[in-house]
Fold DUF971 domain-containing protein.
Amino acid sequence: MSAPQKIRLDKAGKKLVLQYRDQAFQLPAEYLRVYSPSAEVRGHGIGEGTLVSGKMHVGIEKVAAAGRYALQIFFDDGHDSGIYTWAYLRELCDTHNEKWQIYLERLQREGKGRDPDESAVKFIG
C-alpha cells in the first residue's frame, strides 16, 4: 500500500487529513486514538483488544514519519506508541463508518462512554 500523497494535521479540528490519488479522507483524532495499532490497545493476541473510552476531547500534538512505511501519531493524552502503517491508515479510511459503529456499540455494551467527564450507568436485571 502506498503512502498518501499529502498528509495534513488539523490541530484545531482535531483530525488528520489524508489525500490519496483517488480520494481525500478526514480521520478524527478520537477515532485514530481508539483504533491505535499499539499493543496497549490491540492487545497481544487474537480478540477485540482493549476498549478505549473517554477520548472524545483527545487531540493530536504532532505526527512523524516512521521510516518510509508508516506514521507515528503523538496524542495530547500522552499516547504515542502506535505505528500506523500506510496500509492500516488506508484501512481506517475505507472502513471508518463501520469501525466507528462497532466502537459505539462496544461502548454501549460495556457501559462506557466517549466523554471522560460523564459515566454511563449500566443496569443489570
Notes: Strands lie at 6-10, 15-19, 24-28, 60-66, 70-75, 83-85. The chain has one domain: 6-109. The chain has four helices and six strands.
